Amino acid sequence: MAETPGGTDETNRLEALNDGVFAIAITLLALDLRVPQLAGTAPAPQLLGALAQQWPSYLAYVLSFVTILVMWLNHHALFRLIRRTDHALTLLNGLLLLVVTAIPFGTKLLAEYLLEDQRRAAQGVYATLQLLLALSFNAMLWYAVRHGGLFGSAVDRDTVRAMVRQYRFGPLLCAVAVGLAFISAEASLGLCIVLSIFFALPSAQARQLFGRARAGGGGRLN
Amino acid sequence: MAETPGGTDETNRLEALNDGVFAIAITLLALDLRVPQLAGTAPAPQLLGALAQQWPSYLAYVLSFVTILVMWLNHHALFRLIRRTDHALTLLNGLLLLVVTAIPFGTKLLAEYLLEDQRRAAQGVYATLQLLLALSFNAMLWYAVRHGGLFGSAVDRDTVRAMVRQYRFGPLLCAVAVGLAFISAEASLGLCIVLSIFFALPSAQARQLFGRARAGGGGRLN
Amino acid sequence: MAETPGGTDETNRLEALNDGVFAIAITLLALDLRVPQLAGTAPAPQLLGALAQQWPSYLAYVLSFVTILVMWLNHHALFRLIRRTDHALTLLNGLLLLVVTAIPFGTKLLAEYLLEDQRRAAQGVYATLQLLLALSFNAMLWYAVRHGGLFGSAVDRDTVRAMVRQYRFGPLLCAVAVGLAFISAEASLGLCIVLSIFFALPSAQARQLFGRARAGGGGRLN
Amino acid sequence: MAETPGGTDETNRLEALNDGVFAIAITLLALDLRVPQLAGTAPAPQLLGALAQQWPSYLAYVLSFVTILVMWLNHHALFRLIRRTDHALTLLNGLLLLVVTAIPFGTKLLAEYLLEDQRRAAQGVYATLQLLLALSFNAMLWYAVRHGGLFGSAVDRDTVRAMVRQYRFGPLLCAVAVGLAFISAEASLGLCIVLSIFFALPSAQARQLFGRARAGGGGRLN
To answer: Which of A46, A66, A69, A79 best probes binding to B when mutated, by most B CB atoms within 10 angstroms?
Structure first.
C-alpha cells in the first residue's frame, strides 16, 4: 500500500472515536445556554434584556467552542502524519479525550461565576483545564516524535519539527493564565481568549504575528 | 488517484466532524420535548390535552429539524464538489457549526415564548439564527468559489454557478424574516416555514416554483 | 467501479448521518434513567427498593433500545442494496430520522405514566411513534423499489422482494397496537414487545415462527 | 479482495454505530459533573471547597471513562480480527451497547451515594454493570470463536486464543466485586479501580504483572 496522507486502517477507528467525542463535546456546550424564565406579565422587550444579561454564557460558549475546534484541528494535523498507533499512544489519546469531555463542565462553571465574587476560582479551574488540554496534546506529540516508527516513512521531518515548535509554548502560556487567575479573573480570561485566537490562525500567520510581536518587543528594548 | 465524487482523505475527517455535529444537534432538538406533569388524580384524557397544548414545542422542533437537515444536505452537496480544504475554509466551516449548535437553544426559546407576549423577541432571535446560518453557508460557498483550486479539476463550473445562484437569496429572505419579527411573530415564523419547505425541495422543482411565482408576479404587473 | 456490497461515495455520508442519529438516540434513552433521591436517614436497603420501583423506566428503555437497534439493522440491510440516492429518498430518510429522534420522548412519556391512570394515553402515543417508524421505513423501501435504478444492477430481485414481504405487516401490526391502547395499555404494550422480539430475530427464524404460528392457528380452526 | 486488517464493508457500519455509541456514552459521563450553587455572599475560596467536596463525582467519572475506553479498545481489537458479521453477533453486540449506554446511569448513582449510608447498594449496582459489560463482551468473543468463519482466513489462531485467555477472568473478577459490595463498598470499588487499570495496560505488561503477582503469591505460600 502506498503511503497516502490520511488515516490507515490502524488509525481510522481511533480517529472515528475522536471525531465523535469532539463533535459531541462541542455540541453539548450549547446545552447550557439557558432560556430565561420570565413572568407572563413581563413587558415584551424584557426577554431581549434577559438574553443580553446572559453574555457570560455566550462568551464561555464561544471560547470553549473555539478551544475544542482548534484542538480537533491540531489532532487532525497530527494524525495526518501518524500512520500507526500503539497502546501508549492510545492511552495518551484517551487522556486528551478525558480533558475534552471535561471542557463543557468548566465552561458551565465559568459562565455561572464570571460575574460573581468567586470568579477567580472559576477562571482558575477553567484555565487549568486549558493547561491540561495543552499538556495532553503535547504528551501525544512528544511520544509520537520519540517513537518515530509511528510516523509514515514518507513524513517530512521538518513538518514534524515545525509542529513541535508551534505547540511548545502552549502549556507555558496556559500555566501563566492559571497563575494570573489568582490575581485577576479578567486578565486570565483575556489571555485565554488571545491564545485561542492565536491558535485558531493558520500557523504561518500565527508565526508572523508572533515574530512581529517579538521583533516589536525587541525594537522597544533597543 | 482519479477524481471521483465524494470525499478525499483531506476532506474526510472534516466531513466526519460535521456529520457528527449535525447528527447530535438534530437529535438534541427532541430533548426539549417535555413530558407533561399531571397530578395522579387527573382524568385520563387530560394527558392527551396537555400533550396537544405543547404544539409550539412540536412546531419549533420540526422546523428546526428541517432547517438542520437541509443545511446538512447543502453542506453535503458542497463537499461533493470540494476536493481540498485550507485553513480559512476550515474556520468558515467552524463558524457554520457554531451556528448549527446554537439552533437547539433558539428552538427552545421559540417554543417557550411562542404563545407569550414576548413572542416577537423570541422569533426575532430565532430568525437571526437562521440568517446567521444562511450567511455562514454562503461565506463558505463564496470562499470556495474565489479559491477555485479547492474544487476538483473535473468539477463542472455550471454546477457551481447554479449552486451559488440557488443560495444567493437565502440571507436576504432570512433578513426579511428578522425584520418581520418586529411587526408580527406569526408572519416572520410563517416566512421561516415557507423558506424551509422551499429549500427542502429539490432545486429543480424549487427553481420551477420560484420561476412560476416570478412569472405570476410579472403577469400581475403587466 | 465494480459494484461491491456496502456504501458508495454517494450513500456514505447519508449513512454516516444516520449512524450518528441512531447512535445518539439510542444512547440518550438512558439519560432518563433517574437516580432515586432518598433522605440521608433512609435505611440502606431502601435504595434497591427505590431502584426496583423504577421498573417501568427500565422496561421502556430496553424496549425502545431494541426498537431503535432493529430499525438501524433494517436501515443497514436496505442500504447494503441501495447504490444511489436521490432527493426524495433523502427526504424520506429524513422523515425516518425525525421519528427516531422522537422515540426518546415517547419512551419518557411511557415510563412516567405506565403505572398511572393516564397509561392508555401514554401507550397510545408510544404505539403511534412505532407506527410512524414502521410507515416511514416502508415508505423508503417502497420508493426504492419503485425507482429500481437506486439499487445496484447486481442486486438480486428476490432479496428485495423478500425484504418488502418481511416489512409489509409492520405498519398493520403497529396500527393494531395503537387501537389496542384504547382498550388496554397492557395488551398494547405486550404487542409492541412481541413485535420488537419478532423483528429482532433473523428473518429466517422469524418467518419460521410466523409460519408455525399460522400453521398452529390453522390447526386450531380445523 | 485481499484480506487487510481493519473493517470490511460488512463490518464497517456496525463499527460506525459502535464508535458513535461509545463516543456519546463517554462524553455524557461528564454531563453529571455539577456546578456547585453558592450564595452570592459566599467568600471566594468557598467555590474551590465546594468543587473539592464533589470528589466522588470525579472518581466515578474517571473510573467509568476508563471502563468505557478500555471496552472500546477491546471491541476495536476484536473487530480487527472479525471479517464478517451474522445476525447473532449483531444482537450480542447490541447487548454490549445496551450495557455501555447504562454505564452513565450507574456512574451517577455511585457518585450520588458514595458518601451515604446506601453506598453498598450503589456500588453493588455499579459492579453489576461492570459484570454485565464483561459478560457481554465475552459472549461476543466466545460466539466469534465458535463460528470461526467470522474471522478472516488470514487470522492467527494464537492471537485469538491469547485474547480469549486475556478476557476469561474478567467476568469472574467482576463477580467478586459484586459480592464484595455486600461487605464493603470501599473494597468493591477498589477492586473495580484495580481491574480498570489492569485492563488499561497493554496485554503484555498486564500478563507480566499478573504473572508476577501469581509468582509472588506462590512464593508466600511456599
So the answer is: A69
